[in-house]
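Example (one chain per record):
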Amino acid sequence: MGNEGLGIMTDSPFEPAARSRNPEFTKLWIGQSISLIGSQVTLLALPIAAAVTLSATPLQMGILSAVGSAPALLFGLLAGVWVDRNKRRPILIGADIGRALVLGVIPISSLLGMLRVEILYVVGFLAGTFGLFFNVAYRSYLPGLVGRQQLVKANSQLELSNSVAEIIGPGVAGGLVQLIGAPLAIAVDAFSFLVSALSIGSIRTSEPTIKPIEGGTNLGGEIKEGLHLVFGERRLRALAGCISSLSLFNAVIEAVAILYLTRQLGLTAGWLGVIFAGGSVGFLLGAFLADWLTRKIGLGRSLVLGVLVTGASDLLIPLAGKISTLWMVVGVLVVAQFFFGIGLTIFQIGQVSLRQSLTPDHMQGRMNATLSMLSWGIAPLGGLLGGVLGQVMGLSPTLVLAAVGEMLAVFWLVFSPVRIIQQTEGV
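Predicted structure:
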């Protein structure tokens, strides 16, 4: 392969492109990777503890699901201000220790015969709160740790770990739940957060001193400053619009997709497992390809391509209903999920890297929190819209409309300076 394009195309796309030579980043990556696998245990074990161990009602299961995501809506913007006011590494360590302690309540309560569904609510809410602060802090901490020109590589490596965790984690989680029961299995996740805290605690790269805010602290003013940054900077505004649009229409699809696959196409749970496994492989491959593709065609074009591939892949789902042969239906859906994983991962790695590179260090927390709020806040609306459209229009037309909506989200990027950005360095 020649040195055309950006002049740096000597690497293979399947070389671990995100491999960092920064030993301090490696400590962050190792800790995060271990905790991601541990989190897969709780993702499975917590609802099983509620449903099986405590015989929770459907309403109680719904509440348990809601309390985990509530902190992002309640405290999202506050978390951004807190992260910008303080050094990020102590927040990361504190959040990991906090999650370890609150999750440890579940196995201890179980051993003492005191486990109740109300305890799961409190643990789910507190773990979600600590997780919110961790996620905002670590995205804000990364640019200073690796340097802005290495952001795509570093985010690719972190996303690769996430993909691997999603592939092997459910199997590990299922085995542990089967072997020792759901409440005790959660202790493994608690331990993984302690390992993460120790790994991040060993990082020796010093953070810059946080400058006191002129005129004292003004919470409302700081939140407003973060919102002004996101909506006032053209490239960040374009990313915000694209992320929100994708989140909205993807939530529409998720609201009706399972009904469509099971009721209209008649697929069993076994076939669904095969189909979604294709998505897992796509997410993994997307993490490998993101850095290589960015250097091949530029960051802006890779973002545009990621959005288009994501929407086009989802458009295959309703088209599968036109096929009469079962194995061909499954084949089309596997291909759809595979390319969905590739497209979405390329977009996610690129947009996170770009927004990190565009934001001053002292505002990273508020920027990340604002964009997270947009994504989390609009998803429930998409779910409600999907349910209404599915009832009124039918499942297949709703899926078509949502997939087209995902593809149209690309116009936020096309009609902005984002499309011409080559790499994170120098933006």
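Caption: Residues 1-20 have pLDDT under 50 and may be disordered.
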